[in-house]
Input
Amino acid sequence: MDYRTIKTLGQLKQSGYRPLGIREEMRNNLVKALQEKRNLFAGIRGYEDTVIPQLQTAILSRHNMILLGLRGQAKTRIARTMTMLLDEYIPVVSGSELNDDPMQPLSRFAIDAIAEKGDDTPVSWLHRSDRYAEKLATPDVSVSDLIGDIDPIKAASMKLTYADERVIHFGMVPRSNRCIFVINELPDLQARIQVALFNILQEGDIQIRGFRLRLPLDIQFIFTANPEDYTNRGSIVTPLKDRIGSQILTHYPRTKETAAEITRQEANIPESQRDSITMDALLLDLVEEVAFEARKSEFVDQKSGVSARLTISAVENLYSVAERRRLLNGEKKTNGRIADIYGIVPAITGKVELVYEGELEGITSVAYTLIGKAIRKVFTGLFPDPEKIKKSKQKNPYAELINWFGDGNEVDLVHNLDDRGYEKLLGEVPFLKEIVKTCHPKATRQEQLLLMEFILHGLSEFSQISKKQLEKGVRFKDLIGSMLNLKPSEED
Output
């Protein structure tokens, strides 16, 4: 039956409709989803065996909940996904500020309307997408914003005294009756404002300027918080924390594969870029490795965390660096290059917080260090580890290439070099192609070129050859020669 054809309270009664609290409603819909093996959290990746089972348990327990985790761990996205557990439509008394259930009215407006019109009381239908409210906690949030206050204009226009409850202007919380209400960054909310939520969470009544209204509000509360905030900006007062049924800890992706899925899902890459740029999986793997290196770097503040937004922005930058080169060279298509990875530096510098040692190094220097460590890690998965070769005293597959640089040869890899020039330049470096063919005999022509460039970057990170960042590119040369030719300022 399509309940939206029902327009009055009388028709609603005849339909057999029975009121259901929001938590019971969410519980019932989750039970059905679990029985039917439907995944209502399909867009949330990496939490299948950790966070999502805890969320489901909290919903089955009819709990208010708090999502506790570092930035960029999909806390707000999880909260917004919760609307999928709501019924598609619910009935409300038309014109009600508090989304009153026609069968269980709360507000003075709804009670008076039903008393006056009876079964002819108009009924409207509220879609689940309109049953979500979100408030970012900031120090300037007031009790009036959340709970409500007396409205002098309403009192004057209706010719009522301040003793009449009809002069109350309700805040966001009462207006979210029968909805999901989210408060992000809860510790940022002043303690006295947090205290105002006590009765709503436990007893359901609210107090406004001396009015004590017994309003059994039907709200699913979801709070989010960052552990860093407990010490840096504020805290959650203990009585409020005690009233929150379930605390759920979020986390960063445990594997690069999961992280890559999240990045691929969230990155905004236009079709024009996807069609004109071939981005090898090696480059995307390097981006993910940069984030993993940042999350364990001694220069990065681990209490602050490294958001998943870093890799999302980095991949968008990676495509744009290649697109810019394609446009400058008038090419219809191009391929991503290893050197393009340095184009993600702006995505790193704006998204990591440094400790004191990192500040001394400088944010740009730390970004290059993270990229270098990522190259080292990925390189050893594709080619023999230069350090292990040196320790084992076995034949060095890179020896002839290193000796070629030792003879005074250099390679200047210009960022905006067109594809033909890029291929010609790498082809002129002896022994590169032979190393790639030995380690990756099935690589395609484009994969060969990328791996040939990767060898140069990899050997430089292992201090086998020298790499110098130029304004327009990268220069590879002999390590010993470059050290002996340092200017006094460079030695310092």
About this structure: The chain is about 45% helix and 15% strand.
